[in-house]
Write a structure and sequence with these properties.
By secondary structure, the protein is an alpha/beta fold. The protein has a single domain, classed as Metal-dependent hydrolases (TIM Barrel, Alpha-Beta Barrel), CATH 3.20.20.140. Helix content is 39%, strand content 21%. Strands 1, 2, 3, 4, 5 and 6 form a six-stranded mixed beta sheet that branches. α1 runs parallel beside α2 and α5 runs antiparallel to α6. The longest helix has 16 residues. It is globular.
């Protein structure tokens, strides 16, 4: 088995972005000799149970996560003009999975504004040794700041994220 593991995979639960089913992701990882694979759908953890079942059948370790929609603060994002950035959150263990479910629930109930959002306050409350946060893709806040030439914002976000 290879040591390489995809940590950012979208399934059909990522509307307009993913086509593979959770079963497809597990099967492909297994056929490629990977010992693990992740599922990190946009703003939802809806495919987690199907993914877990498929991984069990293919002897692939499931890594559960979500590609959250991040804003600095939900309280200052009420006008809907602020961009929601991508932020990958991965559970390291069962406690981390519970925290991801909680963050998802809060994002969909208390923090929903066009999309389920997470902010620094929620991350500070939930992220610890049980969750790994990755800066995301080109849609991440740090990548967008770098792309815009705003290195001070990128540095601020990097420092703030590392303190969470």
């Amino acid at each position: 088995m290879t040591d390489f593991v995809h940590l950012h995979c979208h399934s059909e639960y990522s509307l307009l972005d993913g086509m593979s089913t959770p079963t497809d992701i597990a099967n492909i990882a297994s056929s490629n000799g990977q010992y693990a694979a992740s599922i990190t759908d946009h703003g939802t953890m809806g495919g987690v149970l199907k993914f877990q079942d498929a991984c069990r059948k293919t002897n692939v370790k499931p890594l559960f996560g979500v590609e959250a929609y991040f804003v600095d603060s939900v309280n200052s994002d009420g006008d809907g003009r602020h961009e929601r950035f991508h932020l990958i959150l991965l559970a390291k263990n069962d406690e981390g999975l519970k925290k991801l479910f909680k963050a998802s629930q809060i994002g969909w109930t208390n923090n929903f504004y066009y999309k389920p959002r997470v902010d620094f306050d929620l991350l500070t409350d939930l992220v610890d040794d049980d969750i790994v946060a990755l800066s995301g893709c080109l849609g991440g806040a740090i990548a967008k700041a770098i792309d815009a030439g705003n290195t001070s914002r990128a540095e601020y976000l990097s420092n703030k994220m590392s303190q969470v």
